[in-house]
């Protein structure tokens, strides 16, 4: 799933490509992806792109006062095309194409989604806050206003909820998903099951530094990369996420996994849980 660093890099890349370009048309190939009806998608036809920004994991293309907002979900992506087909894209249940944005110079971008479970969402709104998911977002961890005091207040408010779930809940902190919550907890040497309100002052500082450092470094590495390069960049720098059975790059221990119904987490026992493997979430209360 694209998370804060990838969506930030996408916004930077597309901002340069789309600035001052006019949207000729938008072809909708997956009707279920469009979540709004007023304004209609056709209202963007003929508009001039003013800029591209990010809200959490939402991508926001602003054009003549309207906003084309994308949430790429787990399997969505944006593919730049130097030349788009002349004929409009047609609905096709076997295609990965959800929508195509065609620009006035013949270039454009394809909004795609792989897999059978379709969760990608497209919105056309007058204000980004009209998208419920954006309106509910917690603070962005990369802005200056996200201080250690803000993080401390969030964790105390969440009580004994597991730290991993708190970090990836978009209404609590915006932009952190499954992958980067694994990564920053590994950087902080902290169990994913640790209760949110149990951190000492020293642990809070360590976690805060890990959030700023891990996400900031990922954004810096991704800055300037084209959309086609971002997935490889992310994967090549992951320490534990999606690396079950491999050696931890810090200590050499084997990266372990805890599986859930629709996701999993990865961690290093030596770095994060005192050398003790975590049992299944439903059976273990390790490191309370």
Structure description:
The chain is α+β, with helices and mostly antiparallel strands and 288 residues long. The protein folds into 2 domains: 4-136, Alpha-Beta Barrel (N-terminal domain of MutM-like DNA repair proteins), CATH 3.20.190; 148-287, Helicase, Ruva Protein, domain 3 (Orthogonal Bundle), CATH 1.10.8.50. It has 8 helices and 10 strands. The two termini are 29 Å apart. 39% of the residues are buried. The model is unreliable at 282-288 (pLDDT under 50).
Outline, from the CA principal axes? elongated
Under CATH, the topology of the largest domain can be stated as Helicase, Ruva Protein, domain 3
Mean pLDDT over all positions: 93
Which CATH architecture of the largest domain is right?
Answer: Orthogonal Bundle
**Please, how many domains?**
2
* Quaternary structure: single chain
Count of DSSP-assigned helices: 8
Main sheet: strand order: 1-6-7-5
Order of helices and strands: HEEEEEEEEHHHHHHEEH
Domain FPG-type: 239-273
Organism: uncultured Nocardioides sp
Protein name: Formamidopyrimidine-DNA glycosylase
EC number: 3.2.2.23
